[in-house]
Amino acid sequence: MSDPSRDEVLPEEQDGQHHRHGGERRRRGGLWSAVREIAMITVTALVISFVIKSFIAQAFWIPSGSMEDTLVYGDRVMVSKIQAGPMKVERGDIAVFEDPGGWLGPMPQPDRGPVMNVVLDVLEFVGVAPVAHGNHLIKRVIGTGGDHVACCDEEGRLTVNGEPLDEPYLYPGDDPSDIEFDVTVPDDSIWVMGDHRSNSSDSRMHDDGTGATGSVPRANVVGQAFVLLFPLDRITWFSVPETFEDVPAAGSS
Asked: Helices 114-126 and 12-55, interaxial angle, to 10°?
């Protein structure tokens, strides 16, 4: 039998206090679980971004006018890195590549303060922020290994393996080239030129007349720009211009 003297009821304020303490513990536990979950999601997203940036695609910021009007200063492009591996950039593609040596002069780095500099460097490293500086260049591929590239024919056009190019992407008012050249692109290399020919330090400017010093080794190619991402009103998918479709295979000229 129960002892009535032992049948106690907690005072209302004590009972409420018990529930409050339990609720606070649950809230603290729930808050910590939420923080851990957000942290795990963030770390996972950064790892995925790093993997994508390292092996699949990466964003780059355009720092010059050498590709106008196709690309202008401040544009952001997404670059497929698959073209630096299983697939290769071909004639007509817009390629990003590392400086093969001496193409870039000293480039001042913007100073946003010690904190923002570190934050942006980290975001760029993991692939969240576009590459805004460094030793990368972006140009259009005109010829690939074995191609005979020359300028200019009687109508002032570039020729690749004897086939003249009509280049609708040239900057308005620019000639195909104000420098004459006649070269054969070395194997495993590409001959590149900016769309703004009068404002582009490209293969023409760095060649010794043989095609060897002006061509970019394929080992330096980072990938192919396939879409202009920003600004939003200029979003564009890049494709190979039709003029390159009629270029015969290397050794045909």
From this structure: 70
Residues annotated as catalytic (active site), given as ranges: 66, 139
The string of pLDDT tens digits covering residues 11-70 is 444 455 555 555 555 555 677 777 777 776 665 555 555 545 555 678 888 888 999 999
80-87 long-range contacts (CB < 8 A, ≥24 apart) are: 80/56, 80/223, 80/224, 80/225, 80/226, 81/54, 81/55, 81/56, 81/57, 81/222, 81/223, 82/56, 82/223, 83/221, 83/223, 83/224, 84/221, 84/222, 84/223, 85/55
Is residue 190 over pLDDT 80? yes
- Cβ neighbours of residue 221 under 8 Å, at least 6 residues apart? 83, 84, 88, 89, 95, 96, 97, 190
pLDDT at 141 over 50: yes
The structure's pTM equals 0.72
Tokens of 29: 């536990």
Question: Can you tell me the mean pLDDT for 151-165?
Answer: 96
